[in-house]
Amino acid sequence: MTRWLGVALLPRTDHLRAAVRLQRDLGGDVPLRPPLDPDGNLPHVTLFQGPFSESLAPKEALGLIGAAAVEIGLRGEAALAGTGVAYQPTGWLFLTLERPRPLVELQAATLAVLERHLDRESFDGDKDVSRFTAAERASWRRYGYRYTGDAYAPHITLGRAEEETARELVRTAPDRVTVAKEWVFDRLSFYVMGEHGAHAQTLLEAPLGRP
């Protein structure tokens, strides 16, 4: 049976709550989907997500990814600079973050652990990728996920809205919300994907940098 799962970095508790508030303040009267919640869909930075076969053992995989984080030097906490609220086709609003080399290396290590367990027959071959960049299309073809390798774009998803609404919310964001300059992450999570790839249910969680 195919399982739709992901691996992510979770923000420290105070920053997790700050991301929830940011979504609400950014959307205002517009209900961005899916709604973020400290006890529901968690704000997160995805390392990878997709369809997996039953051969995947999440506990073992998370242990290997945690060990890789130690080797890379990501221990305890990872602080990432916030670079603003951005629009992403189609209809997405992202809190964009810097892309330091250790995070790129952690994603590569995550892919090395998970790739052989991907259920490639479940990739969406009919997905419209016309607005993807060339790197995003290459990532989609290989992994069934838009943001890997050269296309990796660390972000916290702040939700989705109608296309023009999303563009307007991003255009007016600097006048309506203040984005923290730094976001701190202290945990790795294996999660069940929900609406729009949300972090809907935590399967496993581990402190960052502790295998």
From TrEMBL:
Domain of life: Bacteria
InterPro entries: Cyclic_Pdiesterase (IPR009097)
The protein's name: DUF1045 domain-containing protein
Taxonomic source organism: Streptomyces spongiicola
Organism taxonomic ancestry: Bacteria, Bacillati, Actinomycetota, Actinomycetes, Kitasatosporales
